[in-house]
Structure formats: C-alpha cells, structure tokens
Write a structure and sequence with these properties.
InterPro entries: RNase_HII (IPR022898), RNase_HII/HIII (IPR001352), RNase_HII/HIII_dom (IPR024567), RNaseH-like_sf (IPR012337), RNaseH_sf (IPR036397). The chain has helices spanning about 55-65, 75-85, 85-100, 135-155, 160-165, 170-180; strands at about 15-20, 30-35, 70-75, 105-110, 120-125, 180-185, 200. By secondary structure, it is of the alpha/beta class.
Length: about 200
Amino acid sequence: MPDLLVSFQQKLLEAGCDEAGRGCYAGPVFAAAVILPRHFHHPLLNDSKLLKPSVRLELRTYIEAHALAFSVAQVSVEEIDTINILKASQKAMHIALASLKLTPEFIAVDGNYFLNYKTIPHACIVKGDGKFSNIAAASILAKTYRDEYMQRIHSEFPQYNWASNKGYGTQEHRDAIKENGICIYHRKSFNILPVQAALFE
C-alpha cells in the first residue's frame, strides 16, 4: 500500500473531497468530504477502487471514528437527468462540504475539475485518492454509502443485479437492460437504451 500524505497542504484546515458513481447507468451520484487530523494514518488506506469491499467497510469505521469531520451527500437520478452528471457531481460535493461540522479553509478534490465552493481555495489532484489520505477517505465513504444504497434498491429490480454491479455498465447490466428495458432508477440522460424501450414504473 502507498504511504499517503494526509493532506495537500499543511497550513490550512483542509477537507478532502471525492465522488462515487459518476459513470454509473443507474442510481444517484454520491460525494463525501472529510477533514482528518494531521497525524491520521491507516496502513490499508488507498483509493477505494483498489480495495476489497470488506476492507472499505473496515476503513469507513476507522475514518468515521477518527476524522475531525465528515459528511456524505447524494444527488438523485431525477436531478442528474435535469442538470447533467457533471453538475450533479459538483452539487453533491458542495452539499457534502456544506454539511461538515467544521468549515474547511482549503479543499483538495480528486480529479481535474471542481466548481468553486464559496470563496474557499481548492486544488484538483488527478488520482488524488491514491496520493492523499483525506481524498482517499472521502472516496471510501462515498463508495461504501453508494454501494449500500444500490444494495437496498436491488430487491426492487433484481433483474439488473445491482447488488453485484452497483449500477455500473457491466456486460451483465447491459444485457439485463436489453432484455427488460430501463426502470425508474436508470439515468435517462445517459441514452443507454433506444427511446422505444420499456420503462418500468
């Protein structure tokens, strides 16, 4: 595992921020913001995509117990389809930041784009969830909370097997869409099926 730096800079109170589910065919987009103490460390912490589900859950418990502040937010499928996924992802991150019990003085964001949040300075870091602990922690929270959401709604439409694919466009998911059409949890704006396909209410 990499030896991550806790934060992008050390002078200001910093929140790490990341989203989960941006590229999914179904379900909300989630985002998390995390402020860690300066000497935070966990040997298994890394980009959530590189970790086993059991390790992610172990880390979530540790992060929530030791963070100075954390928050998780989501933006619905309906809003994704209304404002587009990029704006929805940004909105989710802004909601998460606004919900922190501490106000950050600096924001470190995974990726190459971030819409200014209030007047707080920020830095975008490509693959930041593999470089900085606070971004990695945010990726863990966003990913685990979103996965749990998809597992909950799996029972409503088990034909898509969201308990396994979590709404991502796997071959299994694409085949299920071809056979069953799309449902209320699918992102219509993603044009994943022809217009004439069945829509389950």
